[in-house]
């Protein structure tokens, strides 16, 4: 089956700057391929500093009018965008599957998830409010008001090309900010399609601008925004090393930063857990998008008394997963994003086995008839703590099982990482639930639950997983600053 779009104009192949679709000034192009079979899909501009500066110019010029637009009106425009996204959920889901590789059902699910953030912040926009402060001196009025920070640079990853950009753009626009955005070089088409729908929704020219660039030219684009004092905030989702670079490079202009960085999520199964529920939770948390998510479990700790029983139950489920392209409705695990990702996954598996792990399921490339990017869902038992996959994000369909003896051992092992994005654990002991939830060092904790994401909840990490929160009632905070107004001589 060929993936087709009923609405062909959703596939855009140019930058969107100041309300116009345009190519890179030097004509450079970047080819986008389907990871399922490596066949070309489209070409987009391979942009540089000139296009980045033009986007910043447009956002800066549009800011005064957009911030003055009543919040209710901004919310109405976001609601129109939300309606268009949902009206084209199937086409957008196909586009995600085409350029990113995830199964069709997941692609369409991602569109719904992305749209939930647009709807949420459309409704939050009219609720932006300050406060009246009790005066400390007679005859004085004291107020705190919230204002948009200004131009925001948004930099997004390839694994959720719709959800990540919507989760950043929607609160920025709701708060009254204007945006310059750079999508991941592997998956720009979905982001361009979403921007195409903002144009149709009536969001004014210059309010939202998007610039595509290859891996080699991305530093030109980002550096132009880092050096521009008019760009007051950067919102980035990606690796911790890049996040640290952005933090250092932002120092000269003291930009506000939201950084959602790497993870190394532990998943703990205590002996008093419902093992069937824990298996289901782990399957949901680990194998979404083939394990290519920042919050998926990377280390699974199972208490000794239930280790073998849990491993047996999990092995049966992992072995039954169907691997294939998104065009096959039976596919549950699609291709990895590229050959580099596959090489890293296989290297992690080989390293774990070399250090003594038992390979229970998978462990190799599969479907060579389709292409080089398919990896069998893999289950490893008795992984040792010094294995690479205990210290680096594998970003693939690999589950390493490690044994532990006591609750204290499990918590200590879970926290023995510089990262702190997500953690999960399963237990039926109410007292243990409270103790462990308090002790885990992570911005997100799943308790007897593997699917934790929600537009109503604050999403973000601690330690080297970054700072700032996306979603929830707190999601507007990083796109606003507080101005204190003090009026005297009222008597």
TrEMBL record:
Give the record's keywords alphabetically: Oxidoreductase
Q: Which residues form the active site?
A: 260
Asked if the record carries the keyword Oxidoreductase, the reply is: yes
Q: Name one GO molecular function term.
A: succinate-semialdehyde dehydrogenase (NAD+) activity
Q: What are the EC numbers? A: 1.2.1.16
Q: Which residues form the Aldehyde dehydrogenase domain?
A: 21-484
**A GO biological process this protein is involved in?**
gamma-aminobutyric acid catabolic process
* Enzyme class at the top of the EC tree: oxidoreductase
Q: Which family does it belong to?
A: Belongs to the aldehyde dehydrogenase family.
Q: What is this protein called?
A: Succinate-semialdehyde dehydrogenase (NADP(+))
Origin organism is Halomonas salipaludis
